[in-house]
Amino acid sequence: MKKILFLFIIATLILSSCKKGDSIGELDLTFTTKTQDGNLVLFEDFNLADGTLLNLNKLQFFISDIRLIDGNSETKIADIDLVSFKSHDNAAAAQAGETLTFGEIPTGSYTGIKFGLGVSSDLNGETPDYYAGVEGRAVLADAGNHWVNWESYIHTKVEGFFDANGNGTAGGGDADESITYHTGMDMLYREKTINMDISIGEDGTFRLPLTLDIDKIFDSASSLDLPNEPVAHSNPNNAAFMTTTIKIADNLVEAISK
Hints:
Layout: H1 2-17, E1 24-34, E2 46-47, E3 53-70, E4 73-84, H2 91-96, E5 98-106, E6 108-117, H3 121-124, H4 128-131, E7 146-147, E8 152-162, E9 178-184, E10 190-200, E11 205-213, H5 214-218, E12 231-233, H6 239-255, E13 256-257
Parallel strand pairs: 1-11, 9-12
Antiparallel strand pairs: 1-5, 2-3, 3-4, 3-6, 3-8, 6-10, 7-8, 8-9, 11-13
């Protein structure tokens, strides 16, 4: 009996040593783009599924309140980060994708990841000056990503050109072909959940690749009418702009997948 009790105690100690929080590891979250013509390369023409010719020169979005999930429990791993494809002006960079690294994560098995698309309301109310030098929130110190008049960060930026006149070139110096979509404000904050097995090992790095389907940014939850709504900012005083940027916010949720 004493031997059985001893073995039970040893087994209990082994199991308890594997519980989350006893050691830490890292997570690499990589976003890779996808178009009808391969990875998105900035400043290069590419086609949407409907044949529309596009050329993007800026694509970025904030993710915030980043959590690993295990059933009904959540483990927060970061407050905020910025997914920016600004360096993807060549095929090699576009193929590699954009990687965010999160450290000091309790080891163990998780069933997915959850994050907000945009700046969460608890962070959105402050200004870039407030976040200057603040550890873990430095990405919010850039005044170029903040609207002073609307007291909000710009959640998402999609900028570039499309081929409106059918000459086979997106833009080409024609200002009427430019597109600009900036979403913001608390009402356009969205959440994304990716269900998958994630294993964080001690002093190791789990690599989680995600795909951003550019087609779906323009046509998934809602269809964007490029010729009639080529420019929109989340301006609460402009109903048409709000309708368009809501489409972008909703579509971005659908555009991200494992």
